[in-house]
UniProtKB/TrEMBL annotation:
Record keywords, A-Z: Detoxification, Flavoprotein, FMN, Monooxygenase, Oxidoreductase
Name the UniProt record assigns to this protein: Propionate 3-nitronate monooxygenase
Family: Belongs to the nitronate monooxygenase family. NMO class I subfamily.
Domain of life of the native organism: Bacteria
A GO BP annotation: response to toxic substance
Reactions accelerated catalytically: 3 propionate 3-nitronate + 3 O2 + H2O = 3 3-oxopropanoate + 2 nitrate + nitrite + H2O2 + 3 H(+)
Coiled coil location: none
InterPro entries recorded: Aldolase_TIM, NMO
Cofactors that this protein relies on: FMN
Any one GO MF annotation of this record: nitronate monooxygenase activity
């Protein structure tokens, strides 16, 4: 979980509880990722690193300026001039992060947002890492399998945060995880890890019955004691007045699922596709809103199983999740 919730403390606690942890490389410098790898390696448990594949979604200068002007009043109270923001594009330090993972290999590297080039998969596997790719439909699964990856993360449309679709301008149908797994089972011969909408043991059982080798959880851990989730986000997850999640591009220019709030109501219909340009545009607003306790101007990423998240040590959450399996 990029953006702060996944800390080395959370990853260490996940490993100590007998599960497999992933560090988030997204939105971090290569130096920060290297430091976290060293810290987690010292804990003596295997882990993986998740990397965003640079798959920019272009936005014209005119559409960017139009949207920046539209949301500018949202930042006025925080002293932000969003209308004057530059249109920023980057690749999240892609080459440097790959150099790090080839030179200092970890047990597993997973990729999200698209397919890494075939030489990247080859080099990481030669270095000793197993390689996973996030997929959201059968066509993506087949393309990933053709690269020679070691497994697939099947992410349903019920997952929190960014949809891993390769085609954000035309995402696949937002089907429940068991349906997605059933559509992929047996097609590639690769292990399937199910992700999206896991809120309790019944969801794990359903995913395993549909063909998953295992499941991944994210939203369920957002309120864990060891998570780095900010207070405003934590409080929103526990707020009984938050009654649903929605898929929105209003915050980052790429479809992502989060708790419904006023910013989405005001701007979703007018928001262009444009990642990472819109991510950089709204980031100062999101940072200020989080610090001010303003949940209605913050991206409250959460999957459909968010009601299962609770304030507790991660070991207790994972034990309860698997107790009846």
């Amino acid at each position: 979980m990029a953006g702060g919730p996944t800390t080395t403390g959370l990853a260490t606690a996940v490993g100590a509880a007998g599960a497999f942890a992933f560090l988030a490389a997204g939105y971090k410098t290569p130096e920060a990722v290297a430091g976290e790898i060293a810290e987690l390696r010292a804990a003596g448990r295997p882990f993986g690193v998740n990397v965003f594949v640079p798959t920019p979604v272009p936005v014209t200068e005119a559409d960017f300026r139009r949207y920046a002007s539209r949301i500018a009043p949202e930042g006025t109270a925080y002293g932000l001039d969003l209308a004057a923001a530059a249109r920023t594009e980057d690749d999240d330090h892609w080459a440097a992060k790959l150099d790090l993972l080839r030179g200092d290999p970890v047990p597993v590297v997973s990729f999200t947002f698209g397919l890494p080039p075939a030489p990247v998969v080859r080099d990481l596997r030669r270095a000793g890492s197993r390689v996973l790719v996030t997929v959201t439909d059968p066509a993506e699964a087949a393309a990933a399998a053709d690269l020679g990856v070691d497994g697939l993360v099947a992410q349903s449309g019920t997952a929190g945060g960014h949809l891993g679709t390769f085609t954000p301008d035309a995402p696949p149908p937002l089907r429940p995880l068991p349906d997605l797994l059933a559509s992929l089972a047996g097609r590639t011969g690769l292990p399937l890890l199910g992700a999206g909408g896991i809120g309790g043991p019944q969801d794990v059982r359903a995913a395993l019955a549909a063909g998953a080798t295992g499941v991944l959880v994210g939203t369920l851990l957002l309120r864990a004691d060891e998570a780095g989730t900010g207070r405003t986000h934590r409080d929103a997850l526990a707020d009984p007045g938050r009654d649903r999640t929605v898929v929105t591009r209003a915050f980052t220019g790429r479809p992502a699922r989060g708790l419904h709030n006023d910013f989405v109501d005001r701007h979703e219909a007018a928001a262009p596709l444009g990642y990472p340009a819109l991510h950089h545009l709204t980031r100062p607003l999101r940072v200020a809103a989080a610090q001010a306790g303003d949940a209605d101007r913050l991206h409250l990423w959460a999957g459909t199983g968010w009601r299962g998240a609770r304030d507790a040590p991660v070991a207790d959450i994972l034990t309860d999740l698997t107790r009846t399996l």
